[in-house]
Amino acid sequence: MQKELNPENGATVYNLSFVNKASLRDYSSIELPLHLENEKENYLYEKFEVATGFVTYGDAKGFKEFNEIITSTISKGGSNPYCLKGYRTPNQREMAIMAYNKLYDGSEFNSSYGDMMSRTAFSFGYYGLMTKDDKYGYSNSITLWKEMTANTTRCVRDIRVD
Predict the structure, then answer these.
(1) Which stretches does DSSP call E strand in 2-106?
(2) What is the mean pLDDT of the chain?
(3) Whole-model pTM above 0.90?
(4) What is the domain extent for residue 52?
(5) How far apart are CA 158 and CA 13, in angstroms?
């Protein structure tokens, strides 16, 4: 993985063009659907950009409410209400790369940001009827506890590679 800087906006870009193509997903210019950690939507794209800052939204929401709002808004023809146009909520693997590279912990992490949500649900059940140890989905703390809420995220977007 190569870490680059977008000269136009100063955003961090991750380039995975050398990774085996079977380990990557297709390009997406839209929000990823709610998915499980073992599904293709949780794979990385060849190149993706992390928004330059955090997005903070009103009241803290749990995993279920957060993702239902995104899905409902998109199904009505809207776009992700938490991210700027062209950006989307990260999947669990993108969040892991951000965490490893300290884009929301360590030097850039401010405890006021707390946890962030993803579009990746836990395979034991999206919303808890079949949760494993009360885990719903994935956040920056890797597994999301049923009671956890968040009001911050850091959006991403795929950068098309020809």
Answers:
(1) 2-5, 12-15, 35-36, 47-50, 55-61
(2) 81
(3) no
(4) 2-158
(5) 9
